[in-house]
Amino acid sequence: MITSKSIALISVHGDPAIEIGKEEAGGQNVYVRKVGEALGNLGWQVDMFTRKSNATQPTVVQHTPNCRTIRLVAGPEEFVPRQQIYEYVPQFVQEFLKFQEQQHRDYSLVHTNYWISAAVGMELQKFQPIPQVHTYHSLGAVKYKAVSTIPMIASTRLGVEKACLENADRIVATSPQEKEHMRTLVSTKGQIDVIPCGTDIQQFGCVSQVVAREKLGIPQDSSVVFYVGRFDRRKGIETLVRAVSRSTLRDQHDLRLMIGGGWRPGQSDGKERDRIASLVEELGITDLTTFPGRIGHDELPLYYAAANVCVVPSHYEPFGLVAIEAMASRTPVVASDVGGLQFTVVSEETGLLCPAQDDAAFAVAIDRILSHPDWQTQLGKAARERVESQFSWDGVARQLSNLYSTLVVQSSHSLDPAIA
Ligand code: UDP
Q1: Minimal CB count within 10 Å: which of 6, 151, 314, 318?
Q2: What is the pTM of this model?
């Protein structure tokens, strides 16, 4: 009978040990790392597997006594765009099995993240039938509805996502909206639990607006609109920039727009950043806009706290960590009325929801919050309460831990002939 409390989190393209805020590093990296560490604190031995994408990276990174990242060599040891990583799945599986054998590790459960890891998990089932839990992070069926050119890899991805939904022991949807999309767009078969993403409620919300502004050198009487995230067209930064340029408060307020996030010159994020910078210039808002670059999680609480409003203008978002990080920091959120943002942001209570890509609606929403400071405080307070009650990492990890325990016990019963 399996009694091990060792689990493997697999995140082939989203390295949990890497710095966040670059193009390929975003919510998934944060999710895997934070879930891994929190599960480690609950007594699980957590090994997080990812692809080595740089020869100078250490193979093993120990995060906490029970939680480490292991980088497997699968494909070239350099950055490879995620659409091209699928071809290295067989090599990843072989390296995983080799690692397990060398380390004498028996995992009692595998939790895979994103469809490429789903393929790894399903392949592993052929060698070791242990429970597989899966989190999608993004659904091909939703994504391809919204894009004009569908990549070659799309049919493979859609096939893997459907097979995984129908065959994994449990799918974790991070919002009821994501679950609904799985059911309507992927398959009616398979078992889905809704367990949201979380955030660190000690880290976010630990500093006041006054102190944060002092530390960042932002005047106390200015009105700060904040965005942070990857530079990707689907993040809708264009909508935000257009909305701010339409603001009716520009003449009366010291309005400031801060657009945080890293980029690499010449890569897709660098090109999007250049496009946004040109638009800022074209719209005549250069003097009020800053691009602070990648913001580390040590400094990020200051930015959220310094802001009057945080804007999440994504075209689509399965969950959207930025919204709950801002809310934990008592900053109201103006977000697109899509996906997981409909779950996290309660319109008129913790912020406002607007139709995606509707810059006129975003302008009105931003202005409403900026011109009513008392309401802004009230929204921020309610936002903080909502995150404390529903979206702390510890609470999320407890729900995952309960799910794993149930599945491990079920699987050990079905494998133990004395019980079966
Ligand atoms: N992030 C960060 N610094 C940056 C840009 C982004 O720490 O400069 C983090 C942000 O705080 C959040 C994550 O990256 O934790 C983005 O997650 P989200 O779910 O909002 O978007 P995704 O990247 O998954 O599309």
Answers
A1: 151
A2: 0.91
pLDDT tens by residue, 161-189: 999 999 999 999 999 999 999 999 999 99
Domain range 6-198+393-413, CATH architecture? 3-Layer(aba) Sandwich (3.40)
Domains 6-198+393-413 and 209-390 share a fold: yes
Spacing, Cα 321 to ligand 1 middle (Å): 7
Domain boundaries, the chain: 6-198+393-413, 209-390
In the reported structure, the alpha carbon of residue 26 is separated from the centroid of ligand 1 by a whole-number distance in angstroms of: 4
Q: Which residues contact 187 (CB under 8 A, 6 or more apart)?
A: 162, 165, 166
**pLDDT for 88 beyond 60:** yes
CA distance 38 to 36: 6
* CATH topology for the 209-390 domain: Rossmann fold (3.40.50)
Per-residue model confidence as pLDDT tens digits over 46-75: 999 999 999 999 999 999 999 999 999 999
Render 136-176 in DSSP notation, one character per residue: -SS-HHHHHHH-SS--TTHHHHHHHHHHHHHHSSEEEESSH
| 108, 4 contact by CB (below 8 A) | yes
Pocket of ligand 1 (CB under 6 A): 20-21, 26-28, 30, 228-230, 260-262, 294-295, 297, 300, 319-322, 325
ipTM, two decimals: 0.99
Ligand 1 centre and the CA of 402: distance in Å?
27
C-alpha–C-alpha distance, residues 75 and 85, integer Å:
8
Instruction: Determine whether 391 is exposed, middle or buried from the number of CB atoms within 10 Å of its CB (0-12, 13-18, 19+).
Output: buried
Look-up of token digits 């595998």: 110
Long-range contacts of 144-147 (CB under 8 A, 24+ apart): 145/185, 146/234, 146/315, 146/316
Name the residue of 18, 22, 30, 324 whose CB sits within 8 Å of the most ligand 1 atoms, as the mutation to test its pocket: 30
Q: What is the pLDDT of residues 117-128, one digit of tens each?
A: 999 999 999 999
